[in-house]
Amino acid sequence: MPRIGIIGGSGFYSLLEDARAVDIGTDYGKPSSEISVGSIGGTEVAFLARHGTRHTLPPHKVPYKANIEALARLGVERIISTNAVGSLNASYKPGDLALFDQFINATHGRDDTFFHGPKVVHVSLADPYCPEMRGIAMRHGMDHGTGTVMVVDGPRFSTRAESRRYASYADMINMTQYPEVALAREKEICYLGIGVVTDYDAGLEGGQGVKPVSYEEVKRRFAANNERLKSLISALVPKMPEGRSCPCPHALDGAEVRA
Fold this sequence. Notes:
The chain is α/β, with parallel strands linked by helices. The chain is built from seven helices and ten strands. The chain has a single domain, classed as Nucleoside phosphorylase domain (Rossmann fold, 3-Layer(aba) Sandwich). Strand 7, helix 2 and strand 8 (148-151) form a beta-alpha-beta unit.
């Protein structure tokens, strides 16, 4: 039973040894892709391609609930999530790897909870990312150990005005962290968010003397950092302890409304 799940791009399939495909249905439909179960450094893991194996799912169409539910059904207790991010802070340079410690949700209309009644739950997201996993990751060569990520719907990139506004609140911008991280918390799954900085967002264009973001640049930069990211994950997975000493397994304690 894989205790660790990885959500990322299809390039991470090569990390797995002795991989087998697992096709899981959920009450929320099919996940983005078949889940590959294999091992990294002797630790069994489950891998899911967030946008599908051919990257056919745009950010606002990713079946976030099905993805998290499918991993939970497999027995996953910890998720390592990899994400392309734009920089809203000049100190977060293209090519950097950054850990998220906070997010701001600027998406609209995404189904972001498993609890639509009659069971009502108010889960805490004051600290949305697992402190135990973040502590382990910070010892493995991160360029930034903290960072707030602004999550927008996409699939378009921001205007310069939007980007400047977001930069007053956040360090990075992304299209997929929400509701993924929130749904993981509702399943009491530990969650680690790793951002790969691919570009300076449009609002920093003037100050940095670089062109506004384009998809071709994002793709090129993410591919260039893929090997570093894969090396990081290969180092992290065996370091994750079997037991959990963080608050994440108790996220629902006291969160349910009782008459």
